[in-house]
Amino acid sequence: MKPATSALAKSAALLLALASISCLAQNNPAQTSPAPTPAAPATGSTAPAHPAPSPAPPSPFNRTVILLDPAHGGLDSGSRISESIVEKDVTLTFAFKLRSLLAARGFSVVMTRDSDAATLPNTPGTPLTLDDRAGIANHAHPVACLLLHATAAGAGIHLYSSELDAPDPNAAETFGAPWLTAQAAWVTQSQRLQKSLGLALTRANIPLVQSRASVRPVDSLTCPALVVELAPNAGDNASLIDSTYQQHVAEVIATALVFWQNQAQPPDRATPTPTGAQP
Amino acid sequence: MIPRHQRILFWCLFACIVAMGVFLFLERKRARDRIGALADATPIDAPYSNTESVTLDLASDADGSVTATTRPIALPDEIAPRARALLEHLVAEYALPGSPHPLESGAAVDDVFLLPLPVVGHALDTSGSATSAKPTQSGGNTTIPVASTDPNALQPQTPGGELAVINLRSSFVNAHPSGVEVESLTLLSMIGTLHANLPQIEQIRFLVDGQQRETLAGHADLLRTYPSHDTTIQATVPDSP
């Protein structure tokens, strides 16, 4: 019985010692925190009372810049509207009209070509590829990119946005975007721009076709981008070079872009995460 | 006695008649060759006679719509010839007078190839074990299927999904009207028709005479892989933003 009594007494003493140590630890937690190691940085020990506000991310576009891409040019005539009318001439004339109206409304207009020849601006002898056109557009950071085309089929205006699907917001974010799918992040904004222009054209009683299409280089653009195809008025192919018809359409588009200037939003992936939302 | 000038006149008229006969014969032969070149009726698939109701997605240039329409058509049973026959009937509809999406008549599709997804390559089996499924002998060497390491490689959405490669004829592509709308409607019409009748086709690529081409007629992209989906489009009426 004696050894059993002494073992019991030892266990009780041990338990009492542990209980007293835990009480002391609760009363003075700083004493139980591990001592900082010499390798720990000194600045890490004191957190700033008020964290400095992070600088606002740069806006992905300039709200006063519009890009116009008169399709084709040079050896590439585009579609043949009639014996004497080719698409490249119609798109350039229409782009000039649109540029004047946009400039009058305070926009700065960037054009991928301003003459018949489609060549690089710095190297006149080098032909302008579709990728070059997308590069010019992406460097300008415009609030809207309009790729201008013309056709003898249909009537009025045909508006096309990219066929790419918007990226899954739950998918893991990757650095950069593939060249051929760069427009995916902007598809939602492009479709909003399409609705905005479509509404303005319908109100102006201009026949309208809206859809999605895969027309290079729209999928490589990092801006709200649309393909705007000018079609004849009332089935008359000659109306494509009619100054009055072109001016009417250009005025409607320019006015709609003034409203779009303030409606445009950054793409979802470019939207900064609210600071308070993080745990 | 027939006067000399009348005999000369007679033989001149006779020579003219013979010359006109020869000329008409040659022109007839030339016209037949020209018509025969337009309508290539060379039988490629086995004849089939049972008609069935199929869905053709027909486009309209006026309002940019694509509408599903049912037609009774005789089609082969095998999938690839069936796909080719569907597309030929579709283009034939567009070649009819008064078509809302007018295209040139003539053969449009050279062939349709179906590839099971995911697309795999083949490599020489250097290990010698050849334990993988169904190795093939090629020139005395054993080859094994190799899955692509490309993360963007084509993947099936469902087991058994296939990639359809449509080999268009250059005569059809070169004569196709140019424009964003007309070219897009042609592609959407073909994609929608295949989707409606052959659901196992999940993705579609286009070739022209066996080669890649950037665009159909200067606008619609032919280099990308199109997902097979319902492409019917109603005439658009924009709603308020």
Give a short overview.
With 279 residues, chain A is α/β, with parallel strands linked by helices. Chain A contains five helices and six strands; from the N terminus they run αβαβαββαββα.
Name some characteristics of this structure.
heterodimer, A: 279 residues, alpha/beta, Aminopeptidase, six-stranded mixed β-sheet, globular, disordered C terminus, B: 241 residues, alpha+beta, 2 domains, four-stranded mixed β-sheet, three-stranded antiparallel β-sheet, 4 helices, 25% strand
Helix/strand layout:
The complex is a heterodimer of chains A (279) and B (241).
Chain A: H1 2-27, E1 62-70, H2 87-104, E2 108-111, H3 130-140, E3 142-150, E4 157-162, H4 187-203, E5 208-213, E6 225-230, H5 243-263
Parallel strand pairs in A: 1-2, 1-3, 3-6, 4-5
Antiparallel strand pairs in A: 4-6
Helix pairs in contact in A: 2-5, 4-5
Chain B: H1 4-38, E1 51-60, E2 65-74, H2 79-94, E3 109-116, E4 120-124, E5 136-138, E6 141-147, E7 162-168, H3 170-174, H4 180-197, E8 201-208, E9 226-227
